Amino acid sequence: MNPQVLTVPMYRGTMDSGANYANGAPGSLEEMRLWSSGLRRAMSLTNFWSPFMKSKRTGGPIVYEQRPGSVGGAVVTLRTEGALGGLGKRGDNLFTSAAQMGDIPYGSFNVRLDLMSQATGITPWSQEAAGLMGLIEGGLNDHLGKWGGRRVGMHIDHTLAHKCAATSRMWANNKADVNALRSADTASVSIIRNGKLTMSEQGGVGYDSMEDGNGVKIPHYGWFLPERIADSIKRDAEYREANQLNADRGMKNLWFTGDGIAPIDGNKIIERRQIIEQGQIPSGSPFAPIAHVGVVSNAGGATLYGGGQFYKAGVLTDWFVHFPGALFQFGEFETTNLATSFWGTGTRYALIRNPSTGTDAGKLGMIEYTVDAGNHSLTIVKRLATAISGINNTTVGNVNIVGTTINAANVTNAYQKGASIIPCNSYGVPIGIMCGLGRDALGFVKGNLWGEIFEQMVQGGMNGKQRFTGWTFGAEPYRLPDNLTTPGIIMVGCAVAYPDMGLPVVV
Predict the structure, then answer these.
(1) What angle do the packed helices 237-246 and 227-235 form, to 10 degrees?
(2) What SS3 class is residue 161?
(3) Cα dist. 12→22, 285, 449 in Å?
(4) Which residues pair with 444 in a beta bridge?
(5) What is the model's pTM?
(6) What are the sequence ranges of the domains in the chain?
(7) Contact, 395 vs 347, CB < 8 A?
(8) How do residues 427-469 score in pLDDT, each as one tens digit?
(9) What topology is assigned to 4-85+102-166+442-477 in CATH?
């Protein structure tokens, strides 16, 4: 069913009444402008990637194109091209055939657009008494804008993490795979340098540049790191030494101000605030996944609900959408392809750390899990315990209850509300992804809706109309003409440190 955008009169009309709005009459041009400007401003607050979305001419890590005529379900083709090749001619020699001429390899890739919509049950569109202006004054466009910003940002996160080519993926310190990671394999200056070299060698270029003393432009890449991963950079001995020797002295030093991380060898470090649940939204990102127990899980319970203090029975929220094994919904007919995603297929594990107060305060658990449909909960396949019974087992993955990292003295299989749930490998090492981007890393296409109100018929019009706010968009990594390389992306699987939680150190 194709949505129809509410038409806006090309004149300044009077303020819309609730009755007119309920009957489907559009608001005045002024109201529609107020609605759109407020909503888009709110989007920019919750979409982390908003400042990095640039036009092709401007250049940036995410290149957006506007196709206002494209609706949900449309497929937009983006072009790519390689460098002009060939040997050329010397002197007065002429080109006598096409075969002697240089060749520019062209390629393309498709971006499928999808319609994402949202409404609120607090103020039903069809029964709003105050009209469009009342919705604005009530802050509804602000709430919807923040929701839209989060969903767009989440879509970009998962596109980068799970759709880049295999050549754009590596593991910290040249480890073979996720289960080879140990606690020491956290983010470091060395990894960033190596990642930059890998990106450059596969054809990536910096999206920004600075001139050296000779006027030579030095390309800069961007590394977009969640707080937990960025913190490991700050603790890296090489970074601390460089900062001490080269940065400002005194209280203006970044070490004291907390204003960020200094560039490292032509790499900008952009620190992302780690989102923790505040309402019915998932925490973290695919780069540093985390969730919180919403319902106390006893020793026999096989279902683990997320949501922490915001869990509500019957409210379906994708608490575990960022976890390895989750299926992110890219579009109506496309979800994460686990076989080609960053974490791939295989057995999934997570650590659980109880709150510092209450039953089994501060104790640790470990589970083998699968993600339920819709990413609402985890199904516990096996949980670490002091005795074997049902899903309780003395061994989970490569962790045994008699080991030194998690043992009978500090283990629990009773997970309390608010406990942190952190994906890990088979050795109990928390895992995440370092994200490095160059120019034109991702193509993002905006379609016919970007926060506008649209309406659609209910059962062919027999039951009236429903109104929603909608966004039409799609994203895909830019690929070289060989369609095998995503030159502007590097994803590095790494260990994530949680020094404040007392998690085990695995060597």
Answers:
(1) 70
(2) helix
(3) 20, 43, 22
(4) 64, 475
(5) 0.86
(6) 4-85+102-166+442-477
(7) no
(8) 999 999 999 999 999 999 999 888 887 766 655 555 556 667 8
(9) Major capsid protein gp5 fold (3.30.2400)
